Amino acid sequence: MNTLTANIFVFFFLLTSSVSFGQDYPWEFKKESDGIQVYTRDIANSNLKALKIIMEVDISVNAIMGLLMNTKSYTKWVYKCSHANPVKISSTLNTIDYFQIDFPWPFSDRDLYTQTLTSIDPETGVITSSSTGMADYGPERPGFVRVPTHFNQWIITPVSDTKTHIEYFLQSTPGGSIPNWLVNLAADQGPIKSMKGFLSLVNTTPYAESVEWLTESTKTPTPQKQK
């Protein structure tokens, strides 16, 4: 993740969660760019919005997961992410990571710890990777505001050996004194930039040549998918 510019203040990135996705509200289509569809919806008792991205790409699941599981690569494609590093790797399917997000002056930069749980449906091959913010994990750092709540989820469905359907969900609260309307302004812009960065990087070495991303035999329970 990089930093949100003057008109983009949301951390759009990857993360089974206690955060509700506002199930009572319908998704509203916002925009489409190069096959990347962006939807938002209201959240109960909040002025912020949840986000959904849908796209189908001519890229293998192995290549996608090879990049997605490489935390250090996030500074190269997640919009405004200035630092990304693994903290604890219990297995390929269960990790804790730390991120810093560069916000423009006069706002303080944000930081975030997440736990990511990934599972594979043995019948369909569908991969679900869910990341939840851990606001109380790790020390607070001077100059950073800890992101209080964060959840994101990737649902990756193989269509063929070389084509993949992707759904991405995000609900995040940046914390601090940033106007909600300004945060929501980013909801249909930041994700496009991140996803285009992801798709550009995933087609390069070594990701494009990935033949196997999963090196662990232990599977975690399948998280409930967002709708």
Can you describe this structure?
This protein is mainly beta. The chain has one domain (28-209): 2-Layer Sandwich (Alpha-D-Glucose-1,6-Bisphosphate, Chain A, domain 4), CATH 3.30.530. Helices cover 12% and strands 37% of the residues. The protein has helices at residues 61-68, 180-185, 190-202; strands at 28-33, 36-42, 49-57, 81-91, 94-101, 109-120, 127-133, 144-146, 149-158, 164-173. Strands 1, 2, 3, 4, 5, 6, 7, 8, 9 and 10 form a ten-stranded mixed beta sheet that branches. The longest helix has 13 residues, at 190-202. The chain is globular and about 45 Å long. It starts with 27 loop residues before the first strand and ends in a 25-residue tail after the last helix. The model is unreliable at 1-22 and 216-223 (pLDDT under 50).
Which homologous superfamily in CATH is the superfamily? START domain
Radius of gyration over alpha carbons? 16 Å
The CATH architecture name reads 2-Layer Sandwich
Number of H- or I-type helical stretches? 3
H/E series: EEEHEEEEEEEHH
CATH class category: Alpha Beta
Percentage of β-strand residues: 35-45%
In short:
By secondary structure, this protein is mainly beta. It has three helices and ten strands; from the N terminus they run βββαβββββββαα.
